[in-house]
Design brief:
Blueprint lengths: L3 H4 L8 H66 L2 H13 L2 H15 L3 E6 L4 E4 L14 H7 L4 E7 L6 E10 L9 E9 L1 H11 L2 E7 L5 E6 L3 H12 L6 E4 L2 E9 L5 E10 H52 L20 H20 L21 E2 L3 E10 L2 E8 L4 E8 L8 H14 L10 E7 L2 E7 L4 E2 H8 L4 H20 L12 E3 L5 E3 L5 H8 L19 H4 L6 H17 L9 H9 L16 H10 L11 H9 L20
Antiparallel strand pairs: 1-2, 1-5, 3-4, 4-5, 6-7, 6-10, 8-9, 9-10, 11-12, 12-13, 13-14, 14-16, 15-16, 17-18, 18-19
Helix pairs in contact: 2-8, 2-9, 3-4, 10-13, 12-15, 12-18, 15-17
Length: 681
């Protein structure tokens, strides 16, 4: 009888191949999982860093918008108080202590300044009239820092917190001294206020793309929400976040992160905050394609690793199986067995493919760093024939600092306004023939007066027009920036997303100008300035008419060359016909065409061919001929602006702006901040 142990079934052990396969699969899966986790973590870090940059840009934009409102109000108020008629009425009412007259004047000042309210004070700081509270007078406001500075001869500004039936309300205020136009003792002060409220928040939201919250700070230094562009539920959560602690300028609630800009009184007390909020989910959505691609690559790599592991394990086990077969064959008497050579000694490193993913992420971080790297802009070396000397006092008011540049219309200098203590851009104009035509000169002056009414963050503000001897000059806002043509010359074709941003800002500026009846007539890259944050400003509003009026009906020089920028001029403008806002639309299309392709729409055409295209009603130029990857919607916007016939173009800058904002651009690059060359050409 056989031994019972011989009949027991022997436990089937795992094969060497399966053990190698399982061990290798576990190691590879662990390595790939770690890489995936590191990649996802790094992507979130990049998203948070990007969110921080966006919040900082929003904070800067909010503070710039508030400062622009105050500056505009201050200049208007200073101008009105210097009008002799207004001052005489104030002085007469002051002498007679005529409260109804004071109230009438306060309301008239309020209407002229488009202010929320106006307050008039006498030389002792006593309230004469307040348009917000007509029933109040005789109160002493002399202790307020705002009033003290105004009665001391300064122009002061600061936040003002005013109680009301519906709760406290915050205002931006300026105070200017009331003195005789020719100089003399200060007779009182005017305080004007602009409301900071829901409408302000909505405007800032449109300008920054961030959610805006206005919070007022109570005596316990706790902030309470007064206005918000966020949904009601988010506003309630934000209220709880504010009231749970003293506001410190940083806000984090639900999915939103915010940065605050304080509203500070003339005495230095913070009475409110304007908070710009960005969604973390939206920031993460920007890197979701990378995370999804990483996951897909992780899954694909794991499958490849399993297949390779199976193949390698079989190759390692093959010599062992051959030895078993040889042993069995030998037992059967078959000795003619050839064993294979040595098996592979190592398993391939299956994670190599994912090193490329880590390299890609590193490259992305480096790209972000490069996008923040300033480059030097162009330096103008040409000097005008009659250059103003550095340090020279021009027009008894402006101290010349240095020459910025020389263009077809004249020279531009950086100058210090000695009266206001501000640095401005001063442009001297070449108007030899214009001075011989008083009608043209009057129209030019009117154009400049209209241009001064344009108040927009994307427009270089025009201050004053003057004349010294036979030399006309303009003073303008000084923009530390870089002209767009410099960027195009350096980069060639710009990223599609960057072009969309440039176009949107340019069209917003034109929209604001057209609303007050100003047609630019000379939109071109040298007149578009970009600062380090990517903010675009359009310059030379009102000056382009100078060329047309100077030449009258002569559109060509003796050599047959057209005066102006034909590459950007609409056909009707080339022909010398009257133009309207659609001429600016055409020029905007030409600028977008050059940004997208690196070439102007008419670079390869002679002047005669340009005229022939307009006369023959040729189809609008298509930028996809030079840039096939251009989204169809973006190309359609450019073609719609470059139609030779005005009635086939976008009817207005607003219509073109809406079409451009509707373009969905995926995979676009981000424009590097331009260098800090200086404003105008």
């Amino acid at each position: 009888m056989a031994d019972a142990t011989d009949a027991r079934p022997r436990r089937k052990a795992r094969s060497v191949a399966s053990q190698i396969f399982i061990a290798g699969a576990l190691v590879v899966a662990g390595a790939l999982g770690l890489v995936f986790m590191l990649t996802a973590t790094r992507a979130r870090t990049v998203a948070d860093r990007s969110l921080g940059l966006e919040l900082n840009t929003t904070r800067i934009a909010i503070e710039a918008a508030l400062e622009q409102r105050l500056t505009s109000l201050q200049r208007l108020a200073a101008g009105l108080t210097a009008v002799p008629t207004y001052y005489s009425r104030f002085e007469a009412a002051l002498t007679a202590r005529d409260l109804p007259s004071f109230l009438d004047q306060a309301e008239e000042y309020r209407d002229q300044l488009d202010a929320a309210w106006v307050m008039l004070l006498d030389q002792r700081g006593t309230l004469a009239a307040w348009s917000l509270h007509p029933e109040r007078s005789g109160e002493d406001f002399s202790g307020g820092r705002l009033v003290v500075r105004a009665l001391g001869g300064e122009v002061a500004s600061g936040a003002w917190l005013e109680p009301g039936e519906g709760g406290d309300q915050v205002f931006q205020t300026i105070a200017v001294p009331m003195r005789p136009p020719g100089g003399g003792a200060i007779a009182g002060a005017l305080i004007a206020a602009l409301a900071v409220d829901t409408r302000t928040a909505a405007t800032l939201r449109r300008q920054t793309g961030s959610e805006i919250v206005l919070a007022l700070i109570d005596s316990a230094r706790v902030a309470h929400v007064a206005a918000s562009t966020m949904p009601a539920g988010d506003t309630a959560a934000l209220e709880r976040a504010f009231t749970s602690r003293t506001a410190d300028g940083h806000v984090e609630v639900s999915d939103f992160i915010g940065a605050a800009s304080p509203l500070v009184t003339a005495g230095g007390d913070t009475v409110g905050l304007l908070v710009g909020l960005r969604s973390r989910a939206q920031a993460l959505a920007m890197v979701d394609p990378l995370r999804s691609s990483t996951f897909v690559a992780f899954a694909a790599g794991l499958l490849l690793a399993l297949g390779a592991g199976l193949l390698i394990s079989r190759r390692i086990a093959a010599p062992l199986r051959a030895l078993v077969r040889a042993t069995r064959g030998a037992r059967q008497g078959d000795y003619a067995v050839t064993l294979p050579g040595n098996a592979p000694r190592e398993i391939g490193e299956l994670a190599d493919a994912f090193h490329a993913l880590l390299d890609d992420l590193k490259a992305k971080e480096e790209l972000v760093a490069v996008m923040q790297h300033d480059r030097k802009g162009r330096v103008t070396t040409t000097s005008p024939a009659s250059r103003l000397a550095n340090g020279e006092i021009f027009a008894n008011r402006y101290q010349i600092v240095d020459l910025i540049g020389v263009g077809g219309m004249g020279a531009v200098y950086r100058a210090l306004d000695k009266e206001l203590g501000e640095t401005v851009a001063l442009k001297t104009l070449r108007t030899e023939e214009l001075r011989q035509d008083e009608t043209s000169l009057d129209r030019f002056r009117e154009e400049i007066r209209l241009a001064r009414r344009i108040t927009h963050r994307n427009v270089v503000r025009t201050h004053d027009l003057g004349i010294v001897g036979d030399l006309y000059y303009l003073t303008m806002e000084l923009v530390e920036g870089r002209p767009l043509d410099d960027l195009i010359a350096q980069e060639g074709q710009l990223p599609i997303g960057a072009v969309q941003s440039i176009g949107v800002q340019m069209l917003r500026a034109l929209e604001a100008a057209h609303e007050v009846g100003v047609v630019h007539r000379d939109i071109k890259p040298p007149n578009l300035l970009l600062d380090a944050s990517g903010l675009l400003k359009v310059t030379d509003f009102g000056i382009a008419r100078l060329v047309n009026e100077t030449l009258g009906k002569r559109k060509f020089t003796s050599t047959g060359m057209i005066i102006g920028s034909p590459a950007y001029m609409a056909p009707e403008q080339l022909a010398g016909d009257p133009v309207d806002a659609r001429a600016d639309v055409y020029a905007a299309g030409a600028v977008l065409y050059e940004c997208l392709t690196g070439k102007g729409p008419h670079d390869d055409l002679t002047l005669q061919q340009i005229f022939a295209r307009s006369v023959n009603d040729a189809p609008a130029l298509d930028p996809t001929a030079l840039r096939p990857d251009l989204p169809a919607a973006m190309a359609a916007v450019v073609r719609g602006a470059l139609a030779p016939r005005p009635d086939r173009r976008f009817a207005s800058a607003s219509e073109m702006l809406a079409a451009l904002e509707a373009v969905s651009v995926r995979g676009t690059g981000t424009m590097r901040p331009p260098s800090l060359a200086t404003s105008a050409n």
